[in-house]
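Ticket #4471: structure output looks truncated?

Reporter: J.K.
Steps to reproduce: submitted the chain below (420 residues) through the standard prediction queue, then opened the result file.
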Amino acid sequence: MESYKFLLDLAVILLCTKVLGLATKRVQMPQVVGSLLAGLLLGPSMLGLLTETEFLSNVAELGVIVLMFCAGLETDIKELKKSGKAAFVIALCGVIVPIIGGFAVAYFFNKPGVIDSDASCSVVLQNAFIGVILTATSVSITVETLKEMGKLKTHSGNAILGAAIIDDILGIVALTIITSLADESVNVAVVLLKVVLFFVFAGVVGFVFYKFYKKWIESADRGRHRHAIIAFVFCLLISYVAEAWFGVADITGAYIAGLIISNTERSEFIQSRFDTLSFLLLSPVFFASIGLKVELPNMTGTIIAFTVVLVIVAVLTKVIGCGLGAKICGYKPYQCKRIGVGMISRGEVALIVASKGAALGMMGSAFMGPVVIVVVITTIITPILLKIVFKKGPNNYIPDSESISTYHTKISDLRKNLFG
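Returned output as attached by the reporter:
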């Protein structure tokens, strides 16, 4: 019987995420908030009905890969190229400011008599590592929220996507540098070389695949299931290669795969198939799994104070850092707010970074609880704040070529009807 429990787990997750998603929608909040709350409610931090299993973890990983693949399919390549330099500046500011903020908070609290740490490395490295944790950005939460609101194809949406991907790379570099100081087996130069080689590999392989795939699908009279299957195969292979061969996050590979296929004639057909796969199973499990990972420890008064300050700093450093980067690059004030808020969520990325640091003796066990709470709060408030900031300012939707063509056709038909 135990071997079939995953079926019950899936049924409970899908039901609860949808019920709570509809409930949050009724109070004018994105449904993804309900999915996150469902994971918290069902997980060990509250009711304890479900725990994370290897099966759920694998399905969740597949869920975030498909989510980022769909984000790549929906991205406007021309707009992304325009915002490339800006995305780098935004990501750089969104890494530097949180590192400084996290280090400052840890400097005041990580002391004997205040919060005693059992970490094995120096206090300076411990404090710096808290800052590195705050650099993480979980773009998957933002992507799902923007898709739900229909705001992914905006100037702000494209800037967030570009900055988040670069943020991921810069986060890897920052983590590598800080861990290399505590672990001599880590070589910074090798890691940087692997990152560069991955993008070279993705560019070459992506170009070859694009030529073959474009010719293949254009030879068919309509979109077919085989087109979607081969697209998925390509996505999974690039995701695997990114993580296993080059040490780059698999979601970065999935996003690049989506970008490559977005230039083809049947991209909307492919996207419709993956959207169904995502909302039907994979996305609910992924968002619920974030809540299932959360286990809140016993908290002392000092730990609670540290947690409150860390949450505030985690939110403000991303808003200020990324917003400042956007301002430097000429974005309007309302766009700066959208971009800053879109980068707040830490999600599962921060948990992975924290776990790695704890294993290397770079973070005391007393600090894991506050980090978990930062992840929970930033993950839940990001969709809520996104909805608020996107209400202010114009809806600068970027129409694709097909939308423009359809628009001109309708205008032409209207003129014929009116004037003959």
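Triage note (M.O.): checked the attachment and the full token line is present. The domain at 64-280+295-413 is CATH 1.20.1530.20 (Na+/H+ antiporter like fold).
Status: closed, working as intended.
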